[in-house]
């Protein structure tokens, strides 16, 4: 195993894993920690330590008093700051590195979301690849943040879950990949949230619009909506929905009347 300093590429790979793992899963016996350690020739303990040190830079964990090691590597801070300043580029680069070290090809690994790209060319194709890969990584991060469970219905079948945006993708490029702008919702609740039929207030309580309450006599209403009104959403593992984003949704999307 290596005793030399971590490279930037290795640190990017550690960041990639940090974002995808729920907090509390950074221990050295974790299978994903062990897998990354094996791929980069590090010990699981070394990878575990690196993940914990990212927590010391993460505002969410800093506010909770998580400190990591007292003298974390300067490179960790550099990589973290680059991620905050340009999530899209750093997320894509880290996923490229991961794909390469896994001995895979990006187009094959993400075939389900890239399969129509041969019809595109040049810059259009490059942008589309980055966008779709980052959307997939964003989904992994958001689902991990909520333990792959719908924050409203508690449905825990990944194929039925969507990484929803609080501020829509088209409205704020800077926050597209911010996990604080992501919610794990079942398909029906994602659609209802997107259309403003339900909302979440800054106390993290579920709101129903009057438009959807018009259907209170229908059999589906209580099953899918009524029983959840004013209940708290499922607790996030790392990133709470940012209150400013929830306020945006309530002001601009939620159907109040």
Please, could you describe this protein's structure?
It contains 13 helices and four strands. The strands form two sheets. A two-stranded antiparallel ribbon has the order 1-2. A two-stranded antiparallel sheet has the order 3-4. A hairpin with a 5-residue loop joins strand 3 and strand 4. Helix 1 crosses helix 3, helix 5 crosses helix 6 and helix 6 crosses helix 9. The longest helix has 24 residues. The termini are far apart.
Sheet with the most strands, sense and barrel status: 2 strands, antiparallel
Strand order of the largest sheet: 1-2
Our count of helices gives 13
Helix content: 40-55%
- What proportion of the residues form beta strands (DSSP E)? 5-15%
What is the C-alpha radius of gyration, as a whole number of Å? 20 Å
Outline type: globular
Kindly report how far apart the N and C termini lie: 63 Å
| Overall mean pLDDT | 89
Please trace the helix and strand order, writing H or E for each element: HHHHHHHHHEEHEEHHH
Beta strand count: 4
- Please mark out the parts with pLDDT under 50 across 5 or more consecutive residues, or reply none: none
Classification by helices and strands: mainly alpha
Oligomer: single chain
């Amino acid at each position: 195993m290596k005793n030399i300093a971590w490279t930037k590429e290795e640190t990017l790979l550690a960041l990639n894993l940090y974002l995808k793992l729920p907090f509390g899963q950074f221990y050295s016996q974790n299978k994903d920690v062990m897998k990354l350690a094996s791929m980069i020739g590090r010990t699981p303990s070394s990878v575990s330590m690196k993940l914990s040190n990212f927590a010391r830079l993460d505002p969410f964990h800093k506010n909770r008093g998580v400190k990591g090691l007292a003298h974390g590597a300067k490179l960790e801070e550099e990589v973290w700051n680059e991620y905050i300043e340009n999530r899209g580029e750093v997320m894509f680069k880290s996923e490229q590195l991961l794909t390469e070290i896994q001995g895979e090809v990006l187009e094959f690994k993400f075939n389900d979301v890239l399969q129509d790209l041969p019809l595109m060319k040049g810059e259009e194709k490059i942008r589309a690849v980055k966008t779709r890969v980052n959307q997939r990584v964003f989904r992994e991060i958001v689902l991990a943040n909520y333990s792959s469970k719908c924050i409203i219905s508690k449905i825990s079948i990944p194929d039925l879950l969507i990484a929803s945006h609080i501020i829509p993708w088209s409205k704020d490029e800077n926050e597209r990949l911010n996990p604080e702008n992501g919610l794990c919702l079942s398909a029906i609740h994602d659609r209802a949230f997107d259309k403003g039929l339900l909302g979440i207030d800054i106390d993290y309580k579920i709101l129903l619009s009057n438009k959807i309450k018009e259907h209170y006599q229908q059999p589906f209403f209580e099953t899918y909506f009524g029983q959840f009104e004013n209940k708290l959403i499922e607790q996030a593992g790392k990133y709470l929905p940012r209150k400013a984003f929830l306020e945006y949704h309530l002001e601009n999307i939620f159907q109040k009347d």
